[in-house]
Each structure stands twice: as structure tokens, then as C-alpha cells.
């Protein structure tokens, strides 16, 4: 028995020395496994208790349990000490001197599209419009059929629309080509009067200086029993004057065709082109800004409403295009290149939120 006791004392000294000598938590974990793990030195001795004589087991059992507890306590103490050391080292490495001046290259800015979105929401919010949203992945019904877009329309072709793989029933989901599906979803869920704007990302197979595969649109919808074309014209005139921050603005409404409105109109605003720059509100030139019209009775019916009782108007415009016109940005592709130099030049202060009383830009 004396030999067994000496063996335990020697094992204890070796393990405790390894614990105290562990320089990091990973090394300490290796020591714990080698001693107390399933195949550790102490665990193997514990398993051997069953084969000992009763008198020997009576002496070795408490001794092994005591050794196991002593090693566990030593490991816990060492682990706490190592954790404190690691934490101090981490805090020292991550320390920041908050008294240093802010470096300009680290200053964050608001993207022009986000800025313009906030400006547009402020303007239409003041007119009583609510913001509505919808999914980016749409069915054929919401993206085309409910909007009176026929099967042979060019917008349904794969050279213009991103389609997903065909499903078992033969249908194909699409990345929405406009935010107009939100109009249908809103009419399905909400009883008139309806007055919403629907901003969001849209997707089309197109890429050049003024087109990108992903871009931003905002559409408006008003549905009630008395809305007429005069309301639409006033709404768009007030929006354009507020957005471009001019008191007087010439506008003209040209007859056009959109499947989802009847009659349909494209809207131009007065401007001038001087040295390649556009000046809004002055000059004798015209610039197309958006599309609009009275909601087609088919679209109202597709939204679950009675077109003999309800009527309304809708309009749509590109947020990216609005940003280009207002802030003199010539290439749409730069909006999505994540160039920090471009963002710092065209970005807006994160704390300067646009408001109508305080100014938009």
C-alpha cells in the first residue's frame, strides 16, 4: 500500500506542476484531459478500483477521489487566472483613445439613394401617404397579370426579366420588375380610401450608363370614390417643386400608354442644359421625370375592388434617376460600386435628416 500511496503523491505533483505551468487556456485543457479525461491517468486508476481487494479499495477510493477533487480545484483556479490575463491583454490591444480627433477617412455618410428616399418619404408623408412594402420575389400574377400586362408584352420576355427555374405546376417566379405588385397587395388587404407610396428595389436585365440590373423605384397609389386627374396633377406638381426645392416649375403631361393606367401620361419638367449640367426650373428645355395615369379598371378589379365604385391614380419614378438629376451624378453604375471616394464625395451627413421645415438637402 505504501508503494501505491507514493505513486499517487508523485502523480499529484506531476499534474499540479503541469497545471501551474500551463501558459494559456488551451494548454490547460490538454492537461485536464490527460488527467481527468475518459482515458486520463486519474480516470484509469479510478476504473481499476473494481479489481482491488476490499481493504485496498477502502483506502484507495477516498485517496483517488481526493486527488481528483484537488486537481479539479487547481484547474479551475488556474483557468480563472488565465482568463483574467487574456482579458487584460485583449483590453490593452483594443484600447481606443477617445480624445483623438475623428479621422475624416473614417467618417460614414448616407448614400444618395437613401437620402433621396428619405426626402421623397418626407414629401409624400406630408401629403398623407403611407409607406407600403412587398416581396422582391413575385408571382406572375402580381408582377404581370394583375397589372394588365398581356402574355405577349416585351416586359415578360427573358431579355428583360429575371426568371427563376420552372416549378412543378409550370409557373415561374420572377424578381419583381417594378414595385407595382405592392399596389395589388395593398388593395387586397386594405379597404379604400387608399393613399400609399411603395419604394423599393426592382430588377431588370439591363446595364449601361443609365441602367443597372438592380435599381430603385417608388410608386404611388390613390384609390377612393372621387379622385380624378386634377388631383394627380396637383400631387405631382407639389412633389416636384418640393423635391427640387424650387418655387416655380413648368410641367407638361404627355399622352402615353401603360397597361395598368388609362389614360396614361408621361410627365416632363422644365429645365435647361448648360455645359452638360441640368438646371431644374429654368430654361425652355424639357426633361422626362416619371410616368402616371388613372388606374385601369382591370387593375382595380384584380385588387379585389369594384371599378364601378372606386377609381384612382398611380405614378412611378426611379429613385436613382431622381438622385442623378438633383445631385448632378452622371453615371448610374457608380451607385453600386462601393467606391469610398465616390461615397465620401456624394454622401450626406448621417445626422442631417431631411425635413420639409428644415430643408431636404
Overall 3D geometry?
Answer: elongated
CATH superfamily placement of the largest domain: Bira Bifunctional Protein, Domain 2
CATH top level assignment of the largest domain? Alpha Beta
- Identify the CATH architecture of the largest domain: 2-Layer Sandwich
Structural class of the secondary elements? alpha+beta
Helicity level: 25-40%
Radius of gyration from the CA trace?
36 Å
Proportion of strand residues:
15-25%
- In round numbers, the mean pLDDT is 85
pLDDT < 50 stretches = none
H/E topology pattern: HHHHHEEHEHEEHEEEEHEHH
The major beta sheet can be summarized as: 8 strands, mixed
Counting DSSP H or I runs of 4 or more residues, the number of helices is 11
CATH-assigned fold name of the largest domain: BirA Bifunctional Protein, domain 2
Q: How many structural domains can be distinguished in the coordinates?
A: 2
What is the straight-line distance between the termini? 90 Å
Describe this structure as you would to a colleague:
This protein has 361 residues and is α+β, with helices and mostly antiparallel strands. 40% of the residues lie in helices and 20% in strands. The chain has 11 helices and 10 strands. Helix 1 (2-21) packs parallel to helix 4 (54-93), helix 2 (25-36) packs antiparallel against helix 4 (54-93) and helix 5 crosses helix 10. It is elongated. The N and C termini lie far apart (90 Å). The mean pLDDT is 85.
Amino acid at each position: 500500500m505504501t508503494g501505491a500511496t507514493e505513486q499517487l503523491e508523485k502523480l499529484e505533483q506531476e499534474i499540479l506542476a503541469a497545471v501551474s505551468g500551463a501558459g494559456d487556456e488551451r494548454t490547460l485543457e490538454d492537461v485536464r484531459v490527460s488527467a481527468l479525461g475518459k482515458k486520463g491517468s486519474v480516470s484509469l486508476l479510478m476504473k481499476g478500483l473494481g479489481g482491488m481487494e476490499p481493504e485496498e479499495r477502502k483506502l484507495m477510493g477516498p485517496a483517488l477521489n481526493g486527488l481528483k477533487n484537488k486537481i479539479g480545484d487547481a484547474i479551475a483556479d488556474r483557468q480563472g487566472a488565465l482568463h483574467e490575463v487574456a482579458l487584460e491583454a485583449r483590453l490593452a490591444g483594443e484600447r481606443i483613445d477617445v480624445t483623438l480627433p475623428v479621422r475624416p477617412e473614417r467618417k460614414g455618410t448616407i448614400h444618395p439613394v437613401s437620402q433621396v428616399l428619405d426626402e421623397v418619404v418626407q414629401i409624400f408623408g406630408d401629403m398623407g401617404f403611407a409607406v407600403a412594402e412587398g416581396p422582391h420575389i413575385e408571382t406572375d400574377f402580381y408582377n404581370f397579370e394583375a397589372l394588365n400586362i398581356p402574355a405577349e408584352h416585351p416586359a415578360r420576355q427573358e431579355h428583360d426579366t429575371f426568371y427563376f427555374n420552372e416549378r412543378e405546376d409550370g409557373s415561374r417566379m420572377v424578381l419583381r420588375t417594378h414595385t407595382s405588385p405592392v399596389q395589388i397587395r395593398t388593395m387586397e388587404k386594405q379597404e379604400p380610401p387608399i393613399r400609399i407610396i411603395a419604394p423599393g428595389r426592382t430588377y431588370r436585365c439591363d446595364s449601361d450608363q443609365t441602367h443597372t440590373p438592380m435599381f430603385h423605384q417608388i410608386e404611388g397609389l390613390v384609390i377612393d370614390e372621387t379622385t380624378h386627374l386634377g388631383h394627380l396633377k396637383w400631387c405631382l406638381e407639389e412633389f416636384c417643386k418640393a423635391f427640387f426645392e424650387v418655387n416655380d416649375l413648368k410641367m407638361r403631361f404627355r399622352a402615353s400608354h401603360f397597361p395598368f393606367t388609362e389614360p396614361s401620361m408621361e410627365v416632363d419638367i422644365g429645365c435647361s442644359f448648360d455645359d452638360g449640367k441640368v438646371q431644374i426650373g429654368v430654361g425652355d428645355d424639357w426633361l422626362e421625370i416619371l410616368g402616371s395615369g388613372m388606374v385601369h379598371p382591370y387593375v382595380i378589379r384584380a385588387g379585389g375592388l369594384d371599378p364601378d365604385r372606386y377609381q384612382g391614380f398611380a405614378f412611378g419614378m426611379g429613385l436613382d434617376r431622381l438622385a442623378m438629376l438633383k445631385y448632378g451624378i452622371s453615371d448610374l453604375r457608380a451607385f453600386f460600386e462601393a467606391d469610398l471616394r465616390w461615397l465620401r464625395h456624394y454622401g450626406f451627413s448621417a445626422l442631417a435628416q431631411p425635413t420639409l421645415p428644415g430643408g431636404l438637402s
